[in-house]
Design a protein that fits this description.
Mean pLDDT: 79
Strand content: 5-15%
Length: about 80
């Protein structure tokens, strides 16, 4: 049986005055508005990621980043 209702003061009130027996096991579902569209929509990226007085003054390659991490004794 599917019964519709509303929450009123934290209690589910079923439509049509239907009364369920005390202790009846029920399942309540709530149709949540889809947020997937917002979560998966691409976000604009603002460059540079790190602000600098002289952007583009350093050429970083994967090898150079590895060297810097090694110099600071940071594991990849």
């Amino acid at each position: 049986m599917t019964v519709r209702g509303r929450v009123q003061n934290g209690v589910v009130i079923v439509n049509g005055g239907l009364q369920l027996p005390e202790g009846a096991e029920v399942t309540v579902s709530y149709p949540v508005a889809s947020t997937i569209e917002r979560e998966t929509s691409p976000k604009r990226l603002q460059l540079p990621l790190v602000r600098s007085a002289r952007p583009g003054s350093r050429m970083l390659t994967a090898d150079r980043v590895a060297e810097l991490l090694e110099e600071d004794n940071v594991s990849p």
